[in-house]
């Protein structure tokens, strides 16, 4: 059997084990992991085709043909931002019509919200004093946003700034005028949590109890896990959070929460698949895979996912997996990287976010791993030029690899001709921001665009913008984004498709071009990830 096909079979047993078992101590590929939720076997074939260079075409048909009403999908990529805006207006209108035609949304009883594939929420459980319109005035949407504006992750607050820029742009265009004639702007209330979940908890309490916000966006897996139970119990929209933890794929138990990034377990699977497909390059001996893991819920789920993949790999007896853990606020990663270099790894994976991403690259250049380690991976969350660019790490990032999550890097010279990137750079500049200073501005534009589409669609439903209508719009939305590589769709579908982004590219960094250069075709996996009811006690999907 071809190695790629063998790995595809292994995928069916491994992906949602990504979040379902294993310990936090690293270890080797022989560690056992209980495989929980499984994925569609077709995922392996799609990955095989993409990595072999076979084009995986973007879906040009409605992904929800069982529903009444199709969403128009272009066969070719729009050539200007004006063409994109025309498409988005058409798609928003089609989303609104499809929701109405299918009878989704708030029902006549005033307490039941319905959506695709059996999606159902009972608003009578939201607690005393719950309001469908809390945080709304005739002119304002109050949005709460705990975010790291200090510490090693401080640059991530630019996600919030970028989101505010694009939401201001759309407010100026008037797309937040709802069916009740209310025209609003988004007031994003940012509070610094320093990427510390202990600080996030009281900030969220303040936002929902004192500020009485309409909705909330959090950053990071650790912080989001600490507050998503409370926000769901109180039926407060908790949307487009800056995290790819698989826990956000839970439309039944946590319908008010969703994530914005490629799920970390899918990313880990693609790392493993990449290595499996190149096993012959390492000769006949052991293949040492080293990982620097951030010691929190973010890093640990990467580690669990990767161990789960290796445990089911057809080459598992060939692999030795070693790890070192670093604390999120530690000033350096020198000791851990020195220890990993001493293992003479064939492959290195940085399971980091923020400043430690750049530090991983710098340390690898200093301890010999840059030359000696054949494949070195950055995580998708550290794709931007402010982590890998010449101004930060010189040429030390040259040759590194990434499973990039599909998001366009607005700082990359390779994107200079892209009309969306040109537009995004301009509106950031017009708002007084230097887009070159942080790749997270690009994340913010994508997040803000997504939120703006949901606000706009929800506002056109009966009753105008409400929390129930926002939930309905979210769980039934289907759009074609410009912030992501062509061929990637952004959609959710009730109780079956719970992940906003399921597409990615695999790329290698070229320091001469100061760009990630895509290798093979874009991988689009919409609807193929199984949902995940995350148990925080056992750190597993159920």
Task: Walk me through what this model shows.
The protein is α/β, with parallel strands linked by helices. It has a domain of 248 residues: 3-Layer(aba) Sandwich (Rossmann fold). Helix content is 35%, strand content 15%. The protein has 16 helices and 21 strands. A seven-stranded mixed sheet has the order 10-9-11-12-13-17-18, with helices on both faces. It has a three-stranded antiparallel sheet with strand order 1-2-3, with helices on one face. A three-stranded parallel sheet has the order 5-4-6, sandwiched between helices. Helix 8 links the parallel strand 9 and strand 10. Helix 1 crosses helix 2 and helix 7 runs parallel beside helix 8. The two termini are 32 Å apart. The N terminus is likely disordered.
How does the SSE layout of this entry go?
Layout (H helix, E strand, L loop, with lengths): L2 H12 L27 H10 L29 H21 L3 E2 L5 E3 L5 E3 L17 E8 L9 H17 L11 E8 L4 H14 L4 E2 L4 H13 L4 E4 L15 E3 L4 H13 L10 E8 L2 H16 L6 E8 L7 H8 L5 E5 L3 H12 L2 H4 L2 E4 L6 H4 L1 H4 L7 E3 L15 H12 L9 H20 L7 H10 L1 E2 L10 E2 L11 E2 L1 E5 L4 E4 L4 E2 L9 E2 L4 E2 L1
Parallel strand pairs: 4-5, 4-6, 7-8, 9-10, 9-11, 11-12, 12-13
Antiparallel strand pairs: 1-2, 2-3, 13-17, 14-15, 16-19, 17-18, 20-21
């Amino acid at each position: 059997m071809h190695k790629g096909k063998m790995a595809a079979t292994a995928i069916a047993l491994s992906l949602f084990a990504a979040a379902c078992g294993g310990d936090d101590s690293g270890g080797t590929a022989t560690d056992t992991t209980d495989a929980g939720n499984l994925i569609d076997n077709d995922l392996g074939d799609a990955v095989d085709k993409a990595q072999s260079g076979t084009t995986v075409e973007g879906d040009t048909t409605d992904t929800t043909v069982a529903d009444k009403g199709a969403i128009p999908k272009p066969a070719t990529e729009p050539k200007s931002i004006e063409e994109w805006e025309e498409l988005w207006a058409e798609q928003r209108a089609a989303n609104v019509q499809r929701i109405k035609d299918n009878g989704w949304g708030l029902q006549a009883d005033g307490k039941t919200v319905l959506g695709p594939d059996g999606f159902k929420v009972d608003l009578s459980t939201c607690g005393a004093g719950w309001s469908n319109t809390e945080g709304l005035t005739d002119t304002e949407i109050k949005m709460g946003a705990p975010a790291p504006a200090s510490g090693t992750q401080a640059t991530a607050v630019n996600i919030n700034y970028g989101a505010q820029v694009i939401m201001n742009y759309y407010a100026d265009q008037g797309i937040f005028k709802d069916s009740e004639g209310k025209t609003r702007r988004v007031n994003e209330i940012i509070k610094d949590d320093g990427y510390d979940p202990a600080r996030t908890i009281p900030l969220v309490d303040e936002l929902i109890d004192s500020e009485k916000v309409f909705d909330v966006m959090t950053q990071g897996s650790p912080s989001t896990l600490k507050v998503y139970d409370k926000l769901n119990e109180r039926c407060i929209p908790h949307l487009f959070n800056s995290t790819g933890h698989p826990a956000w794929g839970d439309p039944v138990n946590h319908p008010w929460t969703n994530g914005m990034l490629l799920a970390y377990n899918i990313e880990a699977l693609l790392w493993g698949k990449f290595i499996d497909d190149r096993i012959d390059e390492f000769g006949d001996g052991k293949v040492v895979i080293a990982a620097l893991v951030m010691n929190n819920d973010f890093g640990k789920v990467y580690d669990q996912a990767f161990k789960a993949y290796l445990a089911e790999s057809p080459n598992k007896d060939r692999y030795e997996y070693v790890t070192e853990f670093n604390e999120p606020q530690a000033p350096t990663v020198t000791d851990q990287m020195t220890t990993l270099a001493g293992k003479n790894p064939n492959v290195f994976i940085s399971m980091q976010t923020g400043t430690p991403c750049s530090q991983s690259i710098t340390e690898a250049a200093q301890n010999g791993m840059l030359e000696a380690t054949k494949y070195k991976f950055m995580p998708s969350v550290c794709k931007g030029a402010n982590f890998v660019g010449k101004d930060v790490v010189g040429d030390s990032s040259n040759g590194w690899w990434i499973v990039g999550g599909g998001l366009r890097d607005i700082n990359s010279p390779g994107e200079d001709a892209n009309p969306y990137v040109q537009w995004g750079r301009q509106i950031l500049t017009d708002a007084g921001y230097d887009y070159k200073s942080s790749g997270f501005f690009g994340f913010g534009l994508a997040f803000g665009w997504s939120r703006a589409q949901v606000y706009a669609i929800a506002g056109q439903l009966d009753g105008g913008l409400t929390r129930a209508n926002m939930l309905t719009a979210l769980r039934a939305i289907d759009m074609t984004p410009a912030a992501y590589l062509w061929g990637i769709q952004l959609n959710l579908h009730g109780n079956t498709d719970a992940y906003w982004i399921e597409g990615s590219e695999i790329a290698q960094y070229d320091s001469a071009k100061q760009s990630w250069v895509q290798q093979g075709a874009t991988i689009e996996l919409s609807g193929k990830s199984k949902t995940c009811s995350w148990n925080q006690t056992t750190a597993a999907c159920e």
